[in-house]
Design a protein that fits this description.
The chain is an alpha+beta fold and 292 residues long. 17% of the residues lie in helices and 44% in strands. The strands form three sheets. It has an eight-stranded mixed beta sheet with strand order 5-6-2-1-14-13-11-12, with no helix packed on it. A four-stranded antiparallel beta sheet has the order 4-3-7-8. It holds the Pfam family DUF2861.
């Protein structure tokens, strides 16, 4: 079966063919159907079949192939066509973030679900198939409304001991009136096409590791300064860039003192109406002297 899947996968790199023209489509397994739907341009069908493969498949050696197949589907439209169902009218946005924070001597990891909802939310959860809790170290935060928007932002944060693994996940959102919405979520192996690393005190290097997907938003670089006040880190300055990335901080309007400098590179894609973000953050202490 794995040899057959490999042969079918090679077809994705050849001239376009209809699935009906492919002699290898003799079985009707979910994996075969996933390939068939992708070749025929049926992204929702391909997504449904991949979800079924993850639910049924026990062969660990097949996982890299599933990842490659999923990444190939993103080359079509960056994931917009994977799910043709829209969000309910009481939810206006769902963002899933995988974050890796690299600090001197320590790496930390987070999974974050951010939801914009017009109803008061009771719970947001992200679980890995089958019903595996990501972490018991979690917080659900309600943020104040911005402007006159009727939607309130809620953030569920999972503090983790390791990277969020590739695989099948479930997003569940429940309001206090027991209205609920849920969706399957496929996460591939993160392969950042642009990354960042330290080069000097307030300088960093941008590394391009692969060609960008032209259907996806350009990776975004964020530079932020945080002050530690009363046991809490508070942002005092920040800038964002989606092109012409700077590699140094330069002069910034903050008072002399000791701060934390964080530089992040964020990649975004879609899964239908859901935004999926992979974020790499490097941070270090940063002293601003009177001379500066």
């Amino acid at each position: 079966m794995f040899r057959t899947a490999t042969l079918i996968g090679a077809l994705l790199l050849s001239a376009p063919l209809s699935a009906a023209q492919i002699p290898w489509f003799e079985s009707n397994s979910p994996l075969t159907q996933a390939h068939k739907h992708l070749l025929d341009g049926d992204l929702p069908g391909m997504f449904t079949s991949l979800v079924e493969v993850w639910q049924l498949e026990k062969n660990e050696s097949l996982i890299p192939h599933l990842n490659d197949l999923f990444l190939q589907s993103l080359e079509v439209d960056c994931g917009k066509g994977l799910d043709n169902k829209s969000l309910p009218d009481w939810i206006n946005s769902v963002v899933i973030r995988r974050t890796e924070i690299q600090s001197p001597g320590r790496d930390s990891y987070r999974a974050i679900v951010e939801v914009g909802a017009s109803k008061e939310l009771k719970e947001i959860s992200l679980t890995r198939w089958v019903s595996k809790v990501l972490s018991t170290d979690t917080t659900l935060t309600q943020l104040s409304n911005e402007g006159e928007s009727k939607f309130t932002r809620y953030i569920k944060r999972y503090n983790l001991n390791s990277r969020v693994k590739m695989g099948l996940y479930r997003v569940d959102i429940t309001a206090t009136d027991e209205t609920s919405w849920s969706s399957w979520l496929l996460l591939g192996e993160p392969k950042a096409k642009v990354s960042v690393r330290w080069n000097a005190k307030a300088q960093w290097k941008i590394e391009k590791n692969a060609l960008l997907n032209r259907h996806c938003p350009l990776p975004k670089l964020d530079t932020e300064i945080y002050d530690y006040v009363d046991g809490t880190y508070s942002q005092v300055w920040g800038e964002s860039y989606d092109s012409d990335y700077p590699t140094s901080l330069g002069n910034i309007p903050v008072e002399p003192g000791r701060y934390v400098l964080a530089v992040s590179m964020k990649h975004q894609r879609w899964q239908g109406p859901i935004i999926v973000e992979q974020s790499q953050i490097i941070s270090k202490t940063y002293d601003v002297s009177v001379d500066e």
